[in-house]
Amino acid sequence: MSQQGLISVNYHLLRACNYRCRFCFATFEDVSGTLSLPRQLELLRALRAAGCEKLNFAGGEPTLYRHLPELLREARTLGFVTSIISNGARLEELLATSAGDLDWVGLSIDSADEAIQARLGRGDGDHVARSRELVALVHHLGLRLKINTVVTSLNWEEDLRPLIRELHPERWKVFQVLPVAGQNDGLVEPLLISRDHFQAFVDRNQLPPPLHAIVEDNDAMTGSYAMIDPLGRFFSNVGGHHTYSRPILEVGVATALAESRFSPDRLIRRGGRYAW
Fold it and tell me: How far is 132 from 110, CA to CA, in rounded Å?
């Protein structure tokens, strides 16, 4: 592990998104703009020099960012394990140019029911069908697949095992919907569920390895991710809202990470270190 415990980073490139997921915890309504491409490349080099091993590009929707191919190419050159988490928008276009610079593709699929996905804000009724097509492409290209599922009041009673068996991801992450003040308040409240309802979903959806769910409740998700916002600052959800460090390129990786209240121990406890 790196000296700062910084082994994996989620880099939220931009706030723009073509979906309007009601539970999204990274709307960045309080953030304006992004770093320039040269500054982003400098940031990647600083993260690698600090010992970071895995870089996950997120958003908003990262495939909407026109410089993502350049960032992936630089991340590959630097030796990162590269990953993207996407709702599928423009993913085919990205893979046509950048599949060789990607190790992992993460897709967000919360339900096998198109109507539920639409009610959650994921697409207009074709998200599951589109995801099936993208999964087939990811497998064809030999990339590693991760599925992210957020459990809410709309899907906690669902049995997703048939869909997960069909899609056959290498990792299936199951999250309890997380309220974050300033990010999803005013929209997320009707979707919140109790710990018991979340556990009922987990119990119902038991699968043997390697398809077993990697489960994260609200407690496990708090303070256990090293995350960077579009302005190049570490941020944390400790306290139930986003708090931001000073810019990484101004104060250095170690200082900014300490300001973010990220906990490497919590990352390890939630299973954030694996054979990537």
Answer: 13
User: Is 52 among the catalytic positions?
Assistant: no
DSSP string over 2-43: -TTS--EEEEE--S--S---TT-S---TT------HHHHHHH
Query: Among residues 251, 216, 244, which one has the least CA distance to residue 230?
Result: 244
Question: Which run of H or of E encompasses 189?
Answer: none
8 A C-beta contact, residue 105 and residue 145: yes
Residues 6+ apart with CB under 8 A from 174: 149, 151, 201, 202, 205, 213, 214, 215, 216
Active site residue 21: yes
Convert the pLDDT of each residue in 27-37 to its tens digit. Answer: 999 999 999 99
The one catalytic residue among 6, 7, 9, 17: 17
DSSP H or E stretch at residue 107:
strand 104-108
| HEC sequence for 32-101 | CCCCCHHHHHHHHHHHHHCCCCEEEEECCCHHHCCCHHHHHHHHHHHCCEEEEEECCCCHHHHHHHHHHH
Average predicted confidence (pLDDT) for the chain: 95
Q: Are 218 and 209 in contact (CB under 8 A)?
A: no
pLDDT at 239: 87
Each residue's pLDDT tens digit, 143-187 = 999 999 999 999 999 999 999 999 999 999 999 999 999 999 999
Among 9, 24, 193, 228, which one carries the catalytic annotation? 24
Q: Is 24 a catalytic residue?
A: yes
Which residue in the list 21, 35, 44, 151 is annotated as catalytic?
21
